[in-house]
Amino acid sequence: MGLDNVAVLWPRTGRFYEPVSADAFADFAEIAAAAPPQAGPAAALASHIAKAGTVRASAYTELVDLLLGLEGVLFATDAAAEDEDPVIDPDQCAWIAGGLEKFVAGHAALGDVVTFDTIAQVLRGALADARLASQQLRWLESRLDALKDEHGHPPQWHFSLLELDVLARFYQRCVERGFAVYADF
């Protein structure tokens, strides 16, 4: 079983978190219907969100960790480390959505296909003008190297920009409606 990020009511009112009705995400079906044929995974993601109010997040964990610079973001490991429930609160959802939105905007000039190489290109460009750029670029290169296998091959990531936009919209919807996200694994 993989990782699911389930939209839940915030704050918890009882012993358990209550999943949000999928009706809160029903309009994601329109995104799925409007997706171009080459964006099948984006359509499938949007359709699943519309039906379940849930993201099957396993495919995105390393990517989101790289983009946001932390480990275990979608697993809510910060909360779990503090003996709390593995929940991403609305403020953290805003941070995730904002990071994904910024990445999608930064990648637009490179086209619709998102790969390890294009991700690295966008991140290098973003850090090149940052304060302490050389230090941050060294950190980025170490993160990129850590993702490679023992033969030096990078992950075979192949996302569409629309897929990552749909992912960002899920977390943004949680922010807009005051939902949290429960990391179910």
Description:
Strands 2-1-6-3 form a four-stranded antiparallel β-sheet. Strands 4-5 form a two-stranded antiparallel ribbon. Helix 2 packs parallel to helix 8 (161-177) and helix 6 (116-128) packs antiparallel against helix 7 (133-147). It has 185 residues and is of the alpha+beta class. It has helices spanning 28-34, 40-52, 61-68, 77-81, 90-107, 116-128, 133-147, 161-177; strands spanning 4-9, 54-56, 87-88, 113-115, 158-160, 179-184.
Q: Note the beta-strand portion.
A: 5-15%
Strand order of the largest sheet: 2-1-6-3
What is the oligomer described by this structure? single chain
Measured distance between first and last alpha carbons? 7 Å
Structural class: alpha+beta
Molecular shape: globular
Range of helix content: 40-55%
E-strand count: 6
In a nutshell, what does this entry contain?
This protein is an alpha+beta fold and 185 residues long. It has 8 helices and 6 strands.
SSE inventory with pairings:
Layout: E1 4-9, H1 28-34, H2 40-52, E2 54-56, H3 61-68, H4 77-81, E3 87-88, H5 90-107, E4 113-115, H6 116-128, H7 133-147, E5 158-160, H8 161-177, E6 179-184
Antiparallel strand pairs: 1-2, 1-6, 3-6, 4-5
Helix pairs in contact: 1-2, 2-8, 5-8, 6-7
